[in-house]
Design brief:
Blueprint lengths: L1 E3 L9 E5 L4 H12 L3 E8 L6 H13 L2 E6 L36 H16 L3 E3 L15 H14 L5 E3 L7 H10 L22 H12 L12
Parallel strand pairs: 2-3, 2-5, 3-4, 5-6
Antiparallel strand pairs: 1-4
Helix pairs in contact: 1-5, 5-6
């Protein structure tokens, strides 16, 4: 586990952010910071091929002086070999809504990550856990859908003496709407990594890249990331 600490911020409510380093969590991190929370960012290394996102997360937290923990849970990778993100299976190309993208589902991922984040929140007396579920993921990822989020919120309150709210600002927004909000905040999306392949440049072909590039087109903006194909 890597741990970056900065001085505590006085008189601000604490919140945990599950921060992958991708554009959704990058937007949420900045949004929560702007709302005045004393943030504790959690980045999970679960053996994902696109571990490059962890580097981007670290850089942003250092720049913003946000307390940041990188949690090594790669041991669970041996239990999650059915996903192309955590095994030797090829990353599929195409849009997120294509049936082939189901191979990128990591079984129970968000329940695992949320459980750890909620435990951390209780431990540090934080009242909220932010994470980046959004409507663009609903078709493929069951653990990004409203029913799951609402159920996990109920479980979080049953499992602990201290109430912790799971906050999903973009649960009913798509990627282009998230990007639009971030652009209004003046965010530099060259500081986020979305591609499911961890190469030097983003591939431009995987579902994650396709959806990201589509969001920039819809916002009439150019993605600052370098791509192999665009």
């Amino acid at each position: 586990m890597l741990d970056t600490q900065f001085s505590d911020t006085q008189n601000q409510p604490k919140a945990v952010v599950i921060y992958s380093g991708g554009m959704d969590s990058f937007t949420i991190l900045n949004k929560a910071k702007a709302e005045g929370y004393d943030l504790y960012a959690l980045t999970f290394d679960y053996g994902q091929k696109h571990s490059k996102e962890i580097e981007f997360a670290t850089n942003v937290c250092n720049e913003l002086e946000i307390k940041h923990k990188i949690i090594d849970i790669t041991a669970i990778n041996q239990l999650l070999q059915s996903s192309s993100l955590t095994s030797d299976l090829d990353i599929p190309e195409g849009h997120y809504e294509a049936a082939s993208m189901k191979s990128t589902v990591v079984p129970n991922r968000n329940m695992i990550l949320l459980s750890l984040a909620i435990g951390y929140a209780v431990d540090i007396k934080a009242s909220k856990v932010f994470y980046g579920a959004h409507s663009g993921d609903h078709a493929i990822y069951p653990d990004c859908r409203p029913d799951f989020v609402h159920a996990m919120n109920k479980v979080a309150k049953l499992a602990n003496y201290e109430p912790v709210d799971i906050v999903t600002p973009y649960l009913n927004s798509d990627k282009s709407e998230i990007l639009a909000d971030g652009l209004r905040m003046g965010l530099d999306y060259g500081k986020s990594w979305t591609c499911y392949n961890g190469r030097e440049k983003a591939c431009g072909k995987c579902g994650s890249c396709v959806e990201r590039l589509e969001a920039f087109v819809l916002n009439k903006e150019t993605d600052p990331l370098a791509y192999e194909v665009q």
